[in-house]
């Protein structure tokens, strides 16, 4: 599962933090239910786009009330206030976002009004960027120690800006670290463009820490009970989550789910540099690729067919595989709804197919370069495979039927 945000339309010279689709998951139980909160965020986005600042302010304040520990409504409140020329209040809202754990400082480079650029809080973020990120990680660790029942340790890997907050003994935490290193190597070797660093570590503006939380089963169950919405918790298959706004990953296993969610984390790091927000078939197709694998003679991870492929093959035999155009068009809330497993399986098969055809890196490069022209990804699929979508559809189904998990 991935808490993918949709970036709101940038209506003015102040980038909003992402918000809409995030509401699908990871919401603490407040007086509003998840559907009400989603409605407020959607109405806020509409009011913001229409530059109805009074209405936008009222809505974002309600959003903030329902999410008192969340930095995102505070940042968006700052955007509204700045558009009303209330710069001191806007700076105050940004300070509040900082206190609540905002570390995605890249947002300030997407365009701030001059009056805010010179505010004390923004000057402090620019000056103490790294120290503020380090302090936020430390605070998060203390919070976990207070909120969770297990005994947790913090391990930092400064070379990749990855931190592990673990309830497990050192040898098991180390095993998880090796798992992360494998996923990272695969991402670099197979997808990430050669000129992109997997983590910006040096310099004055490093990437935020990715925080990997490895909780006890009991803490995990309690956390999902409190934070996941009814629909997600009823389905009882949420094995892990990655929140790209908090750069935070929580998983109940240290195998397939850890790899899946960490791939999301690495992918989002690149997406945030690009300011892209791809559809779920691409997000989940990439993440599911590292779930099932074999090791090659050099000890490197090679994606392989598994249960998800087998389930697509079963559907293919009875002619029930969804056409690719429909998969491509699925918005996040539908993607994660009742037929979620089928959607994940088909996305994985498509990406396995791209990988088998040797076109995975080419697809990723083409897609990121042509994102503005076609955010759906269909044109990139057709371009790198050199075929129209209906042909890819047929070839993919035939390929799936030939695989032996
Ligand atoms: Zn996912």
Report on the architecture of this protein.
- This protein has 405 residues and is an alpha/beta fold.
- The protein has 18 helices and seven strands.
- The chain has helices spanning 34-49, 53-66, 71-83, 87-99, 114-117, 120-147, 170-190, 217-227, 230-235, 256-274, 280-289, 307-317, 324-329, 332-335, 340-356, 360-369, 378-385, 389-402; strands at residues 153-157, 162-166, 210-214, 240-243, 248-251, 293-295, 301-303.
- The strands form two sheets. It has a five-stranded mixed β-sheet, sandwiched between helices. It has a two-stranded antiparallel ribbon with strand order 6-7.
- Strand 4 and strand 5 (248-251) form a beta hairpin.
- The longest helix is centred in the first third of the chain and has 28 residues, at 120-147.
- The radius of gyration is 21 Å and the shape is globular.
- The model is unreliable at 1-13, 18-30 and 230-236 (pLDDT under 50).
């Amino acid at each position: 599962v991935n808490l993918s945000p949709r970036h709101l339309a940038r209506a003015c010279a102040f980038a909003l933090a992402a918000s809409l689709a995030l509401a699908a998951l990871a919401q603490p139980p407040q007086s509003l239910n998840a559907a009400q909160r989603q409605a407020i965020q959607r109405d806020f986005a509409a009011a913001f786009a229409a530059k109805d600042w009074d209405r936008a302010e009222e809505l974002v304040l309600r959003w903030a009330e329902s999410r008192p520990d969340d930095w995102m409504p505070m940042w968006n409140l700052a955007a509204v206030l700045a558009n009303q020329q209330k710069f001191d209040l806007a700076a105050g809202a940004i300070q509040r976002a900082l206190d609540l754990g905002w570390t995605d400082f890249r947002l300030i480079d997407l365009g701030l009004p001059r009056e805010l650029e010179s505010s004390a809080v923004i000057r402090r973020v620019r000056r103490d960027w790294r120290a503020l990120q380090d302090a936020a990680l430390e605070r998060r660790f203390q919070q976990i120690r207070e909120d969770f029942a297990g005994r947790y340790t913090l391990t930092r890997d400064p070379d990749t800006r990855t931190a592990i907050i673990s309830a497990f003994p050192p040898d098991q935490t180390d095993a998880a670290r090796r798992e992360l290193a494998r996923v990272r190597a695969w991402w670099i070797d197979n997808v990430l463009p050669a000129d992109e660093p997997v983590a910006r570590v040096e310099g004055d503006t490093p990437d935020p820490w990715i925080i990997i939380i490895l909780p006890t089963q009991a803490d995990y169950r309690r956390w999902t009970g409190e934070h996941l919405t009814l629909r997600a918790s009823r389905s009882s298959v949420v094995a892990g989550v990655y929140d790209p706004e908090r750069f935070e990953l929580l998983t109940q296993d240290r195998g397939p789910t850890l790899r899946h969610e960490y791939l999301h984390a690495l992918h989002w790091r690149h997406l945030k540099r690009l300011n892209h927000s791809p559809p779920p078939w691409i997000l989940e197709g990439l993440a599911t690729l590292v779930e099932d694998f074999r090791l090659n003679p050099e000890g490197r991870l090679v994606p392989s067919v598994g249960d998800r492929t087998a389930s697509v093959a079963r559907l293919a035999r009875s002619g029930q595989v969804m056409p690719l155009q429909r998969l491509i068009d699925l918005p996040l809330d539908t993607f994660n709804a009742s037929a979620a497993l089928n959607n994940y399986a088909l996305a994985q098969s498509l990406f396995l197919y791209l990988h088998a055809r040797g076109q995975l890196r080419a697809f990723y490069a083409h897609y990121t370069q042509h994102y503005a022209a076609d955010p759906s990804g269909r044109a990139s699929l057709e371009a790198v495979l050199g075929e129209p979508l209906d042909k890819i559809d047929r070839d993919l189904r035939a390929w799936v039927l030939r695989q032996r998990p």
